[in-house]
Amino acid sequence: MTSVDTTQGVRRRKAASPFLRVAKRIGASLFSVIATLFGLLFVTFLIARVMPIDPVLAVVGERASNEIYEAAYKQLGLDQPFIVQFFYYVRDVVTGNFGMSNLTARPVLDDIARVFPATLELATLATIIGVLFGIPAGVVSAVYEGRWPDQVIRFIGLFGYSMPIFWIGLIGLMVFYGKLGWVGGPGRLDIFYEDIIPSVTGMILVDSLIARDWTIFWNAVSHIILPASILGYYSLAYISRMTRSFMLEQLGQEYITTARVKGLSETKVIWRHALGNVMIPLITVIVLSYASLLEGSVLTEVIFAWPGLGNYITNALLSADMNAVLGGTVIVGLVFVGLNLLSDFLYKIVDPRSR
């Protein structure tokens, strides 16, 4: 083999190596996602089998004859081996078939599509509140470390992070709705405003803006502002604490000292250079906080009679509607996986070194 052939082979390998690295990363990500989803489905399947609830009685009722019970038992595939039942379960979930809800007598997927926009609307507004107030609070807390602004912000964050969210919700309802009348009551709208505007996205604020109905928009704002602020307070406490931790680490770096020696203003040093580097890990914190609000706002939705996914799963669990419970659990897991992928994607955009 000549030196020219050797050089060309090396060049081809170098040209192919970036493609191979990208292919390996994509393959690893896909394998991780598939393994996570498979584990999620296996866990939910086990939950359905160990729960002390007879799925057959939930369908046919307690007064059904033995013949009807046996027929339903076979129709649900419960007479098949465990592995076969799991295969059928995975097949149904992949095709979007979560079964029928015993509570609403509708397909579970249709019910989730109806209630999830309410949770999405509430969690999104709460996350916006948490980010708008949590990041500045964390920065100020780090800059004034050990002094009274730091102590006050840390106390506020600790209170929001420690207090039971249902207790804060009840106190908020009693004070701001019951006593002061500053906000709307439970629910998404006053009852005489329901079903007036067409549902485009399922989110009342967005749909009322599309319809340009400002009366319904401000009524929806009065109802969502209190539960969103309570969830936002919980998110604020977490985001501010993490921002403070990241900022303290950055403010001790040499490049900060160099920037100050060069005569840059303290505002640019803190809000441009230090916070710019903090935003890279903070993206993951914000996305995970958003995911936790999407799946963890159950108590808030129950207290405020918010017709979202958390309230739906709670009512289904109280009614022993396992199809609805498992369907909602799978959707929550898919949301977590999707938001984690989004976090990785945003991380690579913000930090070119990770590409």
From TrEMBL:
Domain ABC transmembrane type-1: 116-343
Transmembrane domains' residue ranges: 26-48, 122-144, 156-177, 216-239, 278-304, 324-347
Classification via InterPro entries: BPD_transp_1_N, MetI-like, MetI-like_sf
Principal localisation: membrane
Top-rank taxon, per record: Bacteria
Membrane association type: Multi-pass membrane protein
Keyword field contains Cell membrane: yes
UniProt similarity note: Belongs to the binding-protein-dependent transport system permease family.
This protein's name: ABC transporter permease
